[in-house]
Structure formats: C-alpha cells, structure tokens
Design a protein that fits this description.
By secondary structure, the chain is an alpha/beta fold. 27% of the residues lie in helices and 17% in strands. The termini are far apart. It holds the Pfam family His_Phos_1.
C-alpha cells in the first residue's frame, strides 16, 4: 500500500492591531512575523527532501500568504479549496476574543446556549465533515506523496480530534495547533495510521498575537 502524508498547516500570525475576531472577513494579511513563519514552514519542508507534490490553501488571505512560500519552494501552482476555510462565527468582527467581558451583553446570549456544539458558529461536526472531505480528496489525488493543506486553527484541531477518536467539544486553551504549525496525517492506502505534530516556527511564537479565531 502507498503511504500518503497530508500536512495540515495553520497560517502564520496576522496583522491585527485592534484584536478583532476576524473569522472569514477578507483582507486580513500576515504580519511581518507571520511572513517569517510562512517562510519557516517552506524551509522546514523543502530542507528535508520531502515529496510535496501539491499545496492547497483556504481562500482567506492569511492562508494564501502562508502557503505561497511552500508552493514556490517546490515550484508548484498554489491551489485553493473553500473547504479549508475558517469556521463560521457569529462573533466575527467583534473584539470579544480580546475582551471577553463583552459576553455579558444580553445581545450575545442567544449564541451561548450550547458550548459543546458550539452554538455561536459553525458546528464542530460540520467543520470535520468538510475538512475530512478535503483531506480524502487530497489523499486520493496525490496517493503515495505528500500534500500541504493550509487552513485555520479550529478546523485543523477538530479534524485532528476526529482522527484520534476524541470528543470534538474541547477547551480552546488546550488546543495543540500553534501558528504555522503542522499536523501531519499519515495514511497507508485508505487507512489512517497516525499523525505527527511539529512547530517549524516555534522560536517565533514568543509574543505572537494570542487572539483566537484564526
């Protein structure tokens, strides 16, 4: 059976001085540090003799900018897959991530009734469905090789949880999905056989934007 590796990469740090929970809002670019993180991912992959034959990214600017150095390093045309997009979130455009005390405002209460779903945005189950469909398509299309899919923290994390067989509901503070990190899924044929987590830009994380929703 052919061994295929699908690397789920979270984008780098975003330029977001106002601490907005930007979600799917267009136009949020990488910061200078985020650009360095993107280059670090490309260096990590290309410097290890990897067999990367495709690079695919979420349509959002921060994911496209993170994916570009890796695509260039392997002389590949960057592809886009809308299924890799950030999770939908009713708090998008607010600064609740930076100032959670705003949740005391009654106008937000209708979104808080079920944190296990979660009720404030796209369900964890729906994120897993679309993400795993993208992973499966990549695995089939590039069987026996490596492919890089650049996405966002929450979709990557719940997808990992689904492969590991853990509950999708979780404490966001316990996510192992740092900026510019790689969650590498390995398959023998169609069978998932394990994953490996790495942080190519670990030394750049100190002081990086901690606001969730990326």
């Amino acid at each position: 059976m052919a061994t295929t590796t699908v690397h789920l990469v979270r984008h780098g740090e975003v330029h977001n001085p106002d601490g907005v929970l930007y979600g799917r809002i267009p136009g949020y670019r990488l910061s200078d540090r985020g650009q360095a993180m993107a280059r670090r991912v490309a260096e990590h992959l290309s410097g290890k003799g990897r067999d990367v034959v495709a690079v695919v990214a979420s349509p959002l600017q921060r994911a496209q900018e993170t994916a570009t150095p890796t695509a260039e390093a392997f002389d590949l045309t960057l592809a886009t897959d809308h299924r890799l997009i950030e999770a939908g979130n009713h708090f998008e455009g607010t600064t609740i991530g930076k100032n959670p005390g705003q949740l005391a405002n009654p106008k937000y209460w209708r979104y808080l009734w079920n944190p296990l779903s979660p009720s404030w945005g796209e369900s964890y189950a729906d994120q897993v469905t679309r993400m795993r469909a993208a992973v499966d398509d990549a695995r089939r299309a590039y069987e026996g090789h490596e492919v890089v899919l650049v996405s966002h923290q929450l979709p990557v994390w719940v997808t990992r949880r689904s492969y590991e067989g853990g509950p999708l509901a979780h404490d966001p503070r316990r996510r192992q999905c740092a900026l510019a990190s790689m969650t590498s899924l390995r398959f023998d044929g169609e069978a998932f056989v394990g994953l490996h987590y790495t942080e190519p830009a670990a030394d750049l994380l100190a002081g990086a934007d901690p606001v969730p929703g990326a």
